Amino acid sequence: MKTKLLITAFLTIVFGSLQAAIIFVDKDATGANNGTSWTNAYNEIYDAIFNHADGDVIWVAEGTYVISNLNKDIPHEINDELTILGGFNGTESNSTARNWDENITIITGERGLTTSQYDNHRNFFKLQNLTNHASLKINGCILEQIGNDDNPGIYFQSNGTSFQNQNPSELIIRNTIIRNGYGQIYYAAVSSETTMTFENTLIRDHDNDGVFFEFSGDESTNRLVNCTIAQCTQNYGDGFYSLSGASNTIEIHNSIVWANSFTPAWGASAAPNDNEIVTHTISEDVCEDCGLPAYSNLISSNPKFVNAAANNFHLQPLSPGINAGNGAEISGTIVYDLDHNPRVSFGLIDIGCFEETEISVIPGVHFVDIDATGANVGTSWNDAFTSLYDAIDAALPGEQIWVAEGVYFVNSPDNINFDYYYIDK
Q: What is the C-alpha to C-alpha distance for residues 349 and 416, in angstroms, rounded to an integer?
């Protein structure tokens, strides 16, 4: 009996010490600054990253945090498992209580010189797994000013002075916004298995001189699901992704790639192959090889963002992306969209990172009422267009325009040279 008790106590001590810990980060905390609780939370996220152990989870309260206080050329090297969760208000005891839409958590590479990208931290993270499975998961954050034109923001790498990837590794980013950055977002040039997954993620206003995602190693599996990529600029390169190497795959599902300047407008690979799978996706120019069987349910119509100029990439109720996604492609961990609203709405799923929750619309109908005082977007009588010409501009082929009583100009009254309205839809 004594022997059994001693063994039990030993196992409890050993295995108990291996349990993952929660590390707390709150810029407003005034306690011991050691990350052990919300009261004693670290004030900076880089302290939590520096002091994490394998399997730890970092909880980050709302606020803006600089990624590192080291030289801008030195990334955080991750050679174990680390999870970073944003969206906390600083009181939660369960991660399911967080809300990344209400409690905005920003991780920035901006070091103070706002007029130059070259002051930014070049790399946020370098994943290297010399002996272990390297895993980085980021959920519910905003990553801004990530990288610069010379360096990717997050990367695996295998070259002479860096490391040889010897174990499977993964990068998973969910419920996250990547904005106002530079250079490649992700780069993988490794000699064995890597996995990259982006879900419910918005990438906007990112500038680069090459591809955004580059997979040039071997046996990498890469997925973008319910992502929106918009208003990004590429000066030269091979589209927003480049796929080469042996046995690499990329899958893009339920996503929007629109209003970008990519060359070509989609992606490129060493040769057309069935390792590129694109389904239920909206893009101006999806790919050059769309005759492959792996491309299906592709839409080239305008996704109808609510107001892209104001960085509002929600979908209007009459968007072709409404209810057009494939729910089978989202992982079981995705319950909410990027707004923290239910990801599956009325048994259906939208394309892109936001789910349209309004149900008081009639598909294919634009409303016009000169006396309406709502949002002036034509989706209902309350939010009807007040001008007929706005409805004509917004309507797609086959749709209807319902007009309330009143007197309407068929064109803008400012257009004094108007002769007729040309309908080509």
A: 44
Burial grade of 72 (CB within 10 A; 0-12, 13-18, 19 or more): middle
State how far the alpha carbon of 196 is from the alpha carbons of 28, 199, 260, 290, 378, in Å: 33, 10, 22, 23, 39
Residue 104 has pLDDT above 90, yes or no: yes
Query: Rounded distance, CA 169 to CA 392, Å?
Result: 51
Nearest to residue 254, comparing CAs of 230, 231, 228? Answer: 228
CB 395 within 8 A of CB 377: no
Q: Cβ distance 384 to 374 under 8 Å?
A: yes
DSSP class of residue 318 equals T
Phi, psi of 113, rounded to the nearest 5 degrees: -90, 90
The model's pLDDT over 261-283, given as tens digits with 9 standing for 90+, comes to 875 556 655 444 557 788 999 98
Enumerate the β-bridge partners of residue 136. Answer: 82, 171
25 sits in which H/E element: strand 22-25
